[in-house]
């Protein structure tokens, strides 16, 4: 009985503090594959970072805390159980290939430290590379060329920006004497092409364009 009580107390001290975490999107700048965020938590107030990934990418996370009782857990898209538990697996996580969806990186203080209202300053670095970036750019270029009636080489593309709702690419279509038109290619959460939105202010409002489906 005493042994079980001691074991239970030990597990309680090692468990993460449970509280309503602040949810923050962790976005990588357009055209980049790397980003770092810094923050501070105190007591049982944690932070839940959301990282949108496409199918088949390489994800790498590096966590640097100031407090030895401060860790991070990682959850795959839609998962309730952690794929990485920092208190036992350490401050580095890698996934190759990724699933399509939103990964969660939960920063927290262990329960014993949280009860003492300790503070943790930290940095969380994320690197997300590879995957379907090139395919998305090709889809944007092809569909934009069709929509604006120009050759694919007349389409200039920006970087792929991922969000929890999907992804987007800002681009320009050079129509010669008619000028350069701004546009945005939008993609579904699974990476598939959705539609193009005209962004140039002097264009008449119109419905977003999408490639017609096969005739039946």
From TrEMBL:
Protein name as annotated: Uncharacterized protein
Signal peptide: 1-19
Keywords on record: Signal
Gene source species: Rhodoblastus acidophilus (Rhodopseudomonas acidophila)
Gene3D superfamilies (alphabetical): 2.60.120.380
């Amino acid at each position: 009985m005493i042994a079980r009580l001691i074991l239970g107390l030990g597990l309680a001290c090692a468990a993460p503090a449970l509280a309503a975490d602040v949810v923050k999107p962790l976005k990588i700048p357009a055209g980049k594959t790397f980003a770092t965020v810094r923050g501070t938590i105190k007591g049982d107030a944690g932070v839940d970072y959301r990282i949108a990934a496409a199918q088949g990418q390489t994800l790498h996370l590096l966590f640097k805390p100031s407090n030895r009782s401060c860790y991070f857990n990682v959850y795959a898209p839609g998962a309730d159980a952690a794929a990485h538990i920092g208190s036992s697996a350490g401050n580095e996580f890698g996934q190759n290939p990724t699933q399509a969806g939103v990964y969660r990186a939960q920063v927290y203080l262990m329960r014993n430290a949280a009860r003492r209202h300790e503070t943790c300053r930290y940095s969380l670095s994320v690197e997300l590379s590879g995957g379907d970036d090139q395919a998305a750019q090709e889809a944007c270029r092809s569909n934009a060329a069709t929509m604006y009636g120009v050759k694919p080489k007349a389409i200039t593309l920006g970087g792929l920006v991922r969000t929890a709702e999907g992804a987007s690419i800002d681009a320009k279509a050079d129509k010669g004497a008619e000028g350069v038109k701004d546009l945005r290619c939008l993609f579904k959460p699974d990476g598939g092409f959705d539609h193009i939105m005209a962004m140039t202010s002097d264009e008449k409002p119109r419905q977003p364009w999408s490639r017609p489906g096969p005739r039946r």
